[in-house]
Design brief:
By secondary structure, the protein is of the alpha/beta class. It folds into 2 domains: 2-119 and 306-374, NAD(P)-binding Rossmann-like Domain (Rossmann fold); 131-299, 3-Layer(aba) Sandwich (Rossmann fold). It has 15 helices and 15 strands. The protein has helices at residues 20-28, 47-53, 61-67, 79-82, 101-110, 131-148, 178-189, 201-210, 222-231, 252-255, 306-327, 329-335, 337-340, 353-359, 366-374, and strands spanning 2-5, 32-36, 56-58, 70-72, 90-93, 113-116, 170-174, 193-198, 215-219, 234-237, 263-266, 287-290, 293-296, 343-346, 349-350. The strands form 2 sheets. An 8-stranded mixed sheet has the order 3-2-1-4-5-6-14-15, with helices on both faces. The protein has a 7-stranded mixed sheet with strand order 9-8-7-10-11-13-12, with helices on both faces. The longest helix is centred in the last third of the chain and has 22 residues, at 306-327.
Amino acid sequence: MLIGVPKEIKNHEYRVGLTPVSVRELIAHGHSVVMQSSAGEGIGEADSAYVDAGATIASNAEAVFAQADMIVKVKEPQAVECKMLRPGQILFTYLHLAPDPEQTKLLVESDSVAIAYETVTDDDGGLPLLAPMSEVAGRMSIQAGAMCLEKSHGGSGKLLGGVPGVAPANVLVIGGGVVGTNAMQMAVGMNANVVVLDRSINRLRELDAQFGGRVSTVYSTRAALEQHVAKADLIIGAVLIPGAAAPKLVTREMLASMRPGSVLVDVAIDQGGCFETSKATTHQDPTYIVDGIVHYCVANMPGAVASTSAHALNHATLPYTLALANHGYQEALLNDSHLLQGLNVHRGTITNEPVAAALNLDFVTPESVLTARAA
């Protein structure tokens, strides 16, 4: 199979779909790879590194899309990229379709096969291709929040960990999953006061044991949310419903209870955000203020640490990329029920139920479209 990797074009996105190590692995399995020129420069990998790994170099994205059987990316395709997709061409990348009707419409019209990293599952009920970026984003959320608390960035002027004689800041983490856990690790390490809200008692028990009592674990109710939002200097939004739009947990009304200069970091913004006042921002212009509260809602946070992120992502995605290339998408998906969950759009049909529900579109099971095609 010929795999194509275009250069990412989203604002300040420096990651790349394949590293030279991944290219070498694909070549060793008998496949071919075409890279857009300078696609890897954001992680410090020159075209020559990809040539040494066995790839060929194309001068522009149009040439990559025109040749490749499968496109491997990082971020969701922008409109210009959606229009380059061919009927039956495989797209393997993050999609986050639930809050994005325009991208969904373009993918449906493209007649392509769109497989989303973020809805692939595993035996433990996890999201193995989302997890590495959730780890990065969770850790980044605390450093971003600490920066936003500085007066020069509109914040209240509180140092996250305080100093002897001066109390540390209060950090509220909403959601105890991968993002939340990594956010807590960083916040605890910086000596902040940390509270986590979650609706799973078992998860709260695990977190209590993991952090040895250094994190206050609270069962999430509306009353608890209102109480702890009012006390927080920094809130990390870390909720996720796989494939679906994030629930709006912190309302605009709640902002009035917060101290001016407090900060919201919405890590769920790719799925529409979990704060009512959230709107996607970019690394170029990452924050805005609503009712005196600083909002940081960058939709591709891990793109800022592209080298770490791209290598971590490739470690997770490479086995699935190889499976799709080795067996073709139909056999690979039908043989792996977890990879099958990644199929979001198939030849003009929505095949992910939460996406269809969020956008009020018709849904067809992925099994039915693949078996019908095979027949």
